[in-house]
Amino acid sequence: EPEVTQTPSHQVTQMGQEVILRCVPISNHLYFYWYRQILGQKVEFLVSFYNNEISEKSEIFDDQFSVERPDGSNFTLKIRSTKLEDSAMYFCASSLGTGGGSSGANVLTFGAGSRLTVL
Amino acid sequence: AQSVTQLGSHVSVSEGALVLLRCNYSSSVPPYLFWYVQYPNQGLQLLLKYTTGATLVKGINGFEAEFKKSETSFHLTKPSAHMSDAAEYFCAVSDSWGKLQFGAGTQVVVTP
Q1: How far apart are CA B92 and CA A55, in angstroms?
Q2: What is the pLDDT of residue A101?
Q3: What is the four-CA torsion angle of A110, A10, A77, A107, rounded to 10 degrees?
Q4: CA of B7 vs chain A CAs: smallest distance (Å)
Q5: How far does B14 lie from chain A, in Å, by closest CA?
Q6: Of A95, A111, A112, which has the smallest distance from its Cβ to B98's Cβ?
Q7: For chain B, which residues lie within 8 Å of any Cβ of chain A, measuring from their own Cβ?
Q8: B43: pLDDT strictly greater than 90
């Protein structure tokens, strides 16, 4: 079964350092997402990406964050200067498309996550 | 704006007993509703979804959920709990654009 893969599974970094989290979405999917889950809290939407541009972003997704699809397969999340409060599990997800119906087009498939620890 | 509320952050059930996890949603448009499960140190796995059509939805691992518009609910049930059902369960709502809003999650503990 196709899956979304994320690397690294765990990264420890010093405050102020740049971090890049990588994701390989399912190959025929068109929509890409990043979510995060701070320990003990709910999963929060960060950003959605379609047709090589951000389609929606949350208040959390400030200027320290950026996303990119550099080569048509990878989908990356960059945090420019990490803060302690960026420590979280970051989930990448992809979907075939939007819209409902029984096609399941708006069903997101999630990766296993990248745990980021900022010291 | 859309949101979900999951009642109960922790649920303990005996093996073989009914599992009932409650989810209520708020949405200004017809919602798409989902239940995801997260096993320890793993990602989010889709259990089941409601988009349109039949309001009783069957998912994987014997789970099912019923969409009740009048009650704005999408409760998850399983007739007989198994030890392997121990996990965290998330209810989520989305609009047609696919962005998910998650509930706070319910941790399920299954006791022998």
Answers
A1: 20
A2: 47
A3: 0
A4: 14
A5: 24
A6: A95
A7: 30, 32, 34, 36, 42-46, 49, 51-53, 90, 92, 94, 96-105
A8: no
Residues 6+ apart with CB under 8 A from B70: none
A63 has pLDDT over 70: yes
| Set of chain A residues whose Cβ sits within 8 Å of the Cβ of B43 | 4, 91, 110-113
Q: What residue in B sits closest to A111 (Cα-Cα)?
A: B43
Out of B36, B43, B52, the one facing A101 most closely (by C-beta) is B52
Tally C-beta pairs within 8 A across A and B: 71
Q: Residue A105 above 50 pLDDT?
A: no
Q: What Å distances lie between residue A73 and A23, A85, A108, B17, B105, CA to CA?
A: 9, 29, 17, 45, 31
Q: Please name the residue that has the structure tokens 């994320």.
A: A6
DSSP characters over chain A: ----EEE-SEEEE-TT--EEEEEE--TT--EEEEEEE-TTS-EEEEEEEETTEEEEE-TT--TTEEEE-SSSS-EEEEESS--GGG-EEEEEEEES-S--STT-TT--EE---EEEEE-
CA distance B24 to B10: 16
